[in-house]
Specification:
Blueprint lengths: L5 E4 L5 H10 L1 E3 L5 H10 L3 E6 L8 H5 L6 E4 L9 H6 L3 E3 L6 H16 L2 H9 L18 E5 L3 H12 L3 E5 L15 H7 L2 E4 L13 H7 L4 E4 L8 H9 L5 E4 L10 H4 L5 E2 L8 H19 L20
Parallel strand pairs: 1-2, 1-3, 3-4, 4-5, 6-7, 6-8, 8-9, 9-10, 10-11
Helix pairs in contact: 1-12, 5-7, 8-9
The structure holds NADP nicotinamide-adenine-dinucleotide phosphate (NAP).
């Protein structure tokens, strides 16, 4: 009899991906109800892998402690701020994410959100449906013509956004902790200085403690009364209270947001603002891209349990393990 490998799936995955998991492993799905939870508690010591689905449940040291023989956490998404990867590393657990396969999708969404926000496209659609066009044309909007965009986080997705923005005719600059070799855009080590220089701030850094409230009241003030903030990174990167205040008092012009501090809850103040554009965290959420991400989750697990190491380990749990000393 071949040995079965027990894994926990912490949240839903696309159907095709879930089929791949079920074909290769014995899968427990505690998020589906009490029966699965009870079953899982009984086999906790047998669990060797976790597939972190789209629920983004916090996976911390307390979670890892439940499964003494856990070897790998394969997460669906490039951002893994919901996983304590340092705690995993201490326990010798490998964490994987899904970089690259979602880069173009998120960059497309970022540009769509920017255009929708500046040209007020959702508002124009609502205007037509409400019958207002029969009475008078939709008011003229702001434009992308002649505008300068500052990218906060020129990583894989930041670069893909920059490529698209060049085709749109936007001027570009960027801020990150380090200057990127070969990047043809001006680098600003100071985020406030860059915000002062640009018309649009495009935020695409990781979430987590290191970037919490990177976009604060001072940055928004520097962006100025006509400034546009686009956040496609993580809600935690923007101080949401400061943003609401800046929008309410006209310290910045408008914002397009795909992510929020307490998802899926979105502050009523933002919902009541007619000039902002709000999306329910759909950056990578096409069928094509979510399948590609899910397949990479399954492939990481399969390759690991075939003894070939992970495909896409995160920086905190490098593979092969660096030599000691
Ligand atoms: P990446 O290649 O690792 O790029 C991240 C960039 O952020 C790097 O250029 C990094 O440069 C910069 N950065 C990191 N910490 C920073 C800090 N404290 N201050 C300023 N810049 C900082 O990652 P990616 O693949 O482009 O993905 C980026 C993020 O996008 C993910 O982590 C995730 O949070 C978000 N995302 C959102 C969606 C969505 O649906 N909305 C989908 C996918 C990804 P330095 O190290 O030099 O600072």
């Amino acid at each position: 009899m071949t040995e079965t490998i027990d894994i926990v799936l912490t949240g839903p995955l696309p159907n095709k991906t879930a089929d791949g998991l079920d074909n290769a492993f014995t899968v427990y799905r505690p998020f589906t109800g009490a029966e699965q939870k009870t079953k899982l508690e009984k086999v906790a010591a047998k669990v060797r892998g976790v597939a972190a689905g789209e629920s983004h449940e916090r996976l911390n040291d307390e979670f890892f402690a439940r499964y003494p023989n856990l070897q790998i956490v394969a997460s669906c998404g490039v951002g893994y701020d919901h996983i304590d990867a340092h705690a995993a590393a201490k326990r010798g657990i490998v964490v994987t994410n899904t970089p690259d396969v979602l880069t173009d999708e998120v960059a497309d969404t970022a540009m769509g959100l920017l255009l929708a926000t500046v040209r007020q496209l959702p508002q124009a659609d609502a205007y037509l449906r409400a019958g207002h066009w029969l009475k008078e044309p939709f008011p003229f909007t702001d434009t992308l013509r002649g505008k300068m965009m500052g990218i906060v986080g020129l990583g894989r997705i930041g670069k893909a956004i920059a490529k698209r923005a060049e085709a749109f005719g936007l001027g570009l600059a960027y801020h990150s902790r380090s200057q990127k070799a070969g990047a043809p855009y001006p680098y600003y080590s100071s985020l406030v200085d860059m915000a002062r220089m640009v018309d649009i701030l495009m935020v695409i850094t990781p979430g987590g403690a290191a970037t919490k409230h990177l976009i604060n009241a001072a940055v928004l003030e520097a962006l100025g009364p006509k400034g546009v903030l686009i956040n496609i990174a993580r809600g935690s990167v923007v101080d949401e209270k400061a943003l609401i205040e800046a929008l309410r008092t006209g310290k910045i012009g408008t914002a397009g947001l795909d992510v929020f501090e307490h998802e899926p809850k979105v502050p009523k103040e933002l919902i009541d603002m007619p000039h902002v554009v709000l999306l329910p965290h759909v950056g990578s959420a096409s069928v094509h891209t979510r399948n590609a991400m899910g397949n990479l989750v399954v492939d990481n697990l399969k390759q690991w349990f075939a003894g070939k190491g992970p495909i896409t380990p995160v920086a905190e749990t490098p593979w092969p393990k660096p030599a000691k000393g």
